[in-house]
Design a protein that fits this description.
mainly beta, four-stranded antiparallel β-sheet, elongated
Length: 120
Amino acid sequence: QVQLVESGGGLVQAGGSLRLSCAASGSIASINAMGWYRQAPGKQRELVALIFSGGNTVYADSVKGRFTISRDNAKNRVYLQMNSLKPEDTAVYYCNGRVVATSRSMSDYWGQGTQVTVSS
């Protein structure tokens, strides 16, 4: 019923930038929050950034000052601008949406993931 699709990952050198995008579609009444998570090999999935419908944001300490999350509520899209990338940022990045469906049920939905690789 709900689908999230990410784009924008790739290979960059340390210090470079990438912009990730995620679009949600389907039987959506509203989206309470959208966020980005990442998972590196051998590590648990971790929160990178989160944005609520009202605009409040949460960032992991490791990305504060370098990454910016933004949201287009009308388009059900979320973006992650990543600047000053470090090799430690290398991971699969996943888009998440906390979605209220037209049925009034609320669930978390996940995108397929997009690989971000930062070379030194």
